[in-house]
Amino acid sequence: MSAADLERSPRAAPVVADRPVLRRGLGIAAVAFGVATLFAGGSVLFGGSMARARAGDVVEFVLVFNFLAGLGYVAGGVAAIRGKRYALVIARFLAVATGLAFVALGAHVALGGEFEARTLIAMTFRSAFWIAQAVILGRVFARERG
Length: 146
Fold this sequence. Notes:
By secondary structure, the protein is an all-alpha fold. Helix content is 86%, strand content 0%. It has one domain (16-145).
């Protein structure tokens, strides 16, 4: 079987078709995560003293970082959905920036700062999400291009 036959075979077609589906799925997940982040962070940042009290021991710089990063989540997700390669740059930036914010949170905790356990869990999830986005988008864009 020649390479041309393989490209025309029914088995090869789903692999090509799956790339945009995967990329769009990653983009939709990023947009949804971004909207949820903006809503959750915004409700604490702008919701007044009752919202702050419900949030518990908020780590202010993490809250602000995550809220602003939520804008990046939406931008990166939209770029991925549209097939723009700069979605990969945004994903890599968010992976690194979230990792750095997580390190800063670790320092805050190590120095005795107040925090909520759910903040550590959330930052672990955020870091893993953006590392996965960066790795998978890198592979998807490489395959779509090549």
